[in-house]
Amino acid sequence: MPDLRSTRRHLTFAFIALGVVDLLALGVLVSPLAGSQRARDAQLRQLEKELQLKTRQVEPLRGFDAKIAVARKQIDTFYKDRLPVRDSAISETLGRVATESGVKISHFGYKMQDPEPVGLSPVLIEASLSGNYLQLVRFINSLEREQLFFIVDSVELGSEHGGVVQLQMKLETYLKTGTT
Q1: Distance in angstroms (rounded) separating the CA atoms of residues 174 and 116
Q2: Residue 96 burial (CB count, 10 A)
Q3: Within a domain: residue 104?
Q4: Signed CA dihedral, 138, 144, 145, 146: sign only
Q5: Looking at residue 124, which CATH number applies to its domain?
Q6: Residue 74 lies in a domain
Q7: What is the chain's pLDDT, residue by residue, as a tens digit (180 residues)?
Q8: For site-directed labelling of 49, which of 57, 59, 67, 172 has its Cα 20 to 30 A away?
Q9: By C-alpha distance, which of 124, 125, 135 is closest to 166?
Q10: In a domain, 142, yes or no
Q11: DSSP characters for 6-64?
Q12: How many beta carbons lie within 10 A of that of residue 94, not counting itself?
């Protein structure tokens, strides 16, 4: 038969050790080391606010790899559909838009810039136009809606004689390089 005194002594030591651990934990809980309940609650609220802020900051980055793939496809489509391969397409488009809107081009010139590393060459365009105000407005509006991509850099109104307005425009577009 087992010795009950020895077992009782072991259990007494175990209970005393657990009581000491409980007293130490209670002491740490109420001591300045752990802070008050109010301070711990305030710290918890502050950490929750920081977590919400960080979550909001990284939200736009979720699915970023998919967004990059979509953007690449959109860029490829833009390059294919909206940028010319030949410089003659620029003058053809400007001439067609001018004819459709009733505007006369008195001077037209463009200057090709050095190609950029992305396979595009900027083309700076200067044009002198004449027509009535409504025709010029239609021309600019049509140019902005044109399939070929144009950036209107500046528009300067010149003199007006008998309802015909002189207009100086500076435009920019891009020519695809490396393709023929």
Answers
A1: 10
A2: 13
A3: yes
A4: positive
A5: 3.30.70.60
A6: no
A7: 567 888 888 889 999 999 999 988 887 777 766 666 787 788 899 999 999 999 999 888 888 888 899 999 998 899 888 999 888 899 999 999 999 999 999 998 989 888 888 888 999 999 999 999 899 999 999 999 999 999 999 999 888 888 889 999 999 999 988 654
A8: 67
A9: 135
A10: yes
A11: HHHHHHHHHHHHHHHHHHHHHHHHHSTTT--HHHHHHHHHHHHHHHHHHHHHHGGGTTH
A12: 25
What is the C-alpha to C-alpha distance for residues 41 and 39, in angstroms, rounded to an integer? 5
Residue 167 located in a structural domain: yes
Cβ atoms within 10 A of the Cβ of 47, count?
10
Number of domains in the chain: 1
| Region class of 177: left (phi > 0), else alpha (psi between -120 and 50), else beta | beta
Angle of CA points 111, 117, 120, to nearest 5°: 40
Query: 89: exposed, middle or buried (C-beta count within 10 Å: 0-12, 13-18, 19+)?
Result: middle
What's the domain range around 158? Answer: 84-176
Give the three-class secondary structure for 101.
Answer: helix
Which residue's structure tokens are 């010319």?
84
Query: What's the confidence (pLDDT) of residue 180?
Result: 41
